[in-house]
Amino acid sequence: MKSHRPLWLVILRGFGFWLMIAIATALVVVGYFYSATWMDYNSPLFLFGTLMLLVGVGVLGGGLRYAIVKMMRERSRSSAIMVFLIMRVLFVLLCPYLFRKWTVGLKSEGKVVAIAKRPFLWGDNEFPVYVGRSRIFSLWGDMFDGPWFIYPFADGQRFLCIDDNDTSVLVFVVDLKNSTTNAAGSFGWPPDEYARNYMAETAPKIVIGSKGSVRLPSYEEVQEAAKYVEKLTAAQLEGVSFPAFDLGLYRSYIPKKVLLKELDVNRHSLWPLAD
User: 251 near 243, Cβ under 8 Å?
Assistant: First the structure.
């Protein structure tokens, strides 16, 4: 069916429609950023971000409904293209949720001994680790910080964690064989006293609800974890690692050489990436 409206009006309405779609897309992206960054539910920025997100998704849904009705009524190619483009926008925006890596299998000697779960960051800020249905501990995280890698030892009672803590990368062991304590013990690693003391003081603050103690690893434990990482292929390492960046269909991981740098027996820096 041909439109009897003036050409300039048709062009103006089309421009306004796509401008609305572009603004709605920006609202979703910015709303996701604010709500994921300020995860305090009482924060005005969290509420503002959530509102932007909901408005953006609502407008995109309304635009898709309008385009589908228009396509069914007019049966024109332009309407079909409109529906296709809006559906692609919605698909891309929902990818980080639909195709997110929700769990990480923690392997020892080729067998999965525990499961770590990755929350959708604006809903929770804990990365819980389960053995069966029992949660044994969680690691704190947010949009930018959190665990990179967890190595379970063969006894199933010790878990070596490499964790990005904003301005430092911590390496510590959650030891289920020992009773819970608020102070991290040390076997002398890392050799730098300042780095060792900082890790010993900070590591217990990262671990939530542990059923064991939090301590620094021994030299032998660091070497065992490093040998395990060294022998993994790139695909195997991605399978047992936490993504540093996750958009659903695209993910990036911390490279093997960086993990090995964190596990260096002669490590002296809290942030070896800067060395």
Answer: yes
CA–CA distance, 239 with 201 (Å, rounded to integer): 31
Q: DSSP state, 271?
A: -
Q: Residues 12-39: pLDDT tens digits? A: 887 888 899 899 889 888 887 776 655 5
pTM: 0.78
Q: Is residue 1 part of a domain?
A: no
Distance CA(196)–CA(166), nearest Å, equals 17
Residue numbers of the domain that contains 50? 7-98
Residues 126 and 251 in one domain: yes
On whether both 63 and 107 belong to a single domain, the answer is no
**Residues 205 and 89 grouped into a single domain:** no
Helix ranges (H only) for the chain are 7-37, 44-74, 77-98, 193-206, 219-231, 234-240, 256-262
